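task queued by scheduler; priority normal; single chain, no ligands, no partner chains; default sampling; output format set to structure tokens
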Amino acid sequence: MEHFKPTDYKLQSLCCGAVFEDTDWELSCPHDHEPALIRAVYDNKQIEVNTNLPGLYKFANWMPVERILDGSGSPVTYKSAGFAKELGLENLFITFNGYWPEKGAHMQTGTFKECEAYSVCARKNKRHDKIMVVASAGNTSRAFAKVCSENKIPLLLCVPEDNLSSMWFETEPDSCVKLVATEKGTDYFDAIHLSNIACEMDLFYPEGGAKNVARRDGMGLTVVSAVTTIGRIPDYYFQAVGSGTGAIAAWEANLRFLEDGRFGNNKMKLMVSQNEPFVPIKDAWEARSRDMLPFDDNDARKQVETVNAKVLTNRRPPYSLKGGLFDALSDTNGEVLSATNEDAENAAQLFLETEGNDVTPAAAIAVATLIDVVKTGKVDKKATVMLNITGGGTEKFKQEHELSG
């Protein structure tokens, strides 16, 4: 592997436009403003895919990283044949995040959360004497546990007890990784609350979630993979969302490609989806409300218990703040769709039969909504469609490997 030069970038506030250095794990603008995300601004305006670098680091000049970590896989984009034929789509491109060695996909945790983890853990960080805290509904924790374990990065994971089945590994995590669970009947937001309590102690610091530019730009590599493979910006982008951070990241990657100038000048229409009956983002967007609509927390927890895609159940997503999901949907004339457990199960089976690999319950929600909008004529059959399979090949991985945990 060639010598790696840390990526040159600065951070910019989306509330006041201030540009500043990434000196110490910055998660917000140094000035006191309304809630807003900050964004990485890269010196290199045109993406350079460096295939001499391993895994997803081939896209490192659009990642806020100072080092290379071993073991990463990369999103793999390919033109669909079987599933596309079933739907009658001429230009369906699938970006697969997961385990599918035959396609060159080597994410061993089976989820695009590895894109986040390998990006976040390679970001400039002076807090080597402290413990990073990550809250998760399951997949993110599995990915961070793998990366931190392999690279001896101290980590505290906060996960709802009902989601502990997601915490499976090929190799038992290193002792630098610790796990705490919120009690049965709680959800992702409760895990976030617990992580916030931990971060009030000097020993811990927050990974940052959607506020962490490395997390978003890691997730945005799905679009970087798609655009550099297809040769143009897609017309539509399909993904299931819990927090919506992946959709925000997709939008931000799209904006970078507009600056790049070589891949077209369109904005992908964000087609994001949730698992019925838990659809708070859909409810807020259909009301065109910048704020999430009020709902009873206990009712929400009961809804969470009924959905198969537990990772899509964030009650406090980064929706309202400047640069958040509301702005992403507004700027791209996006839509929020939904599907039932049954819809998703049928969609997963169809994907398996036509493409040849399994998808996670969350990814199946996106597949189901794509099927639905094609049936109802919402998508032009000739349009360039990107389907972000955020997780897949987990059953395949489990069949081919002995698991620990």
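post-processing summary
- The first strand starts at residue 9 and ends at 13.
- The chain has a mean pLDDT of 95.
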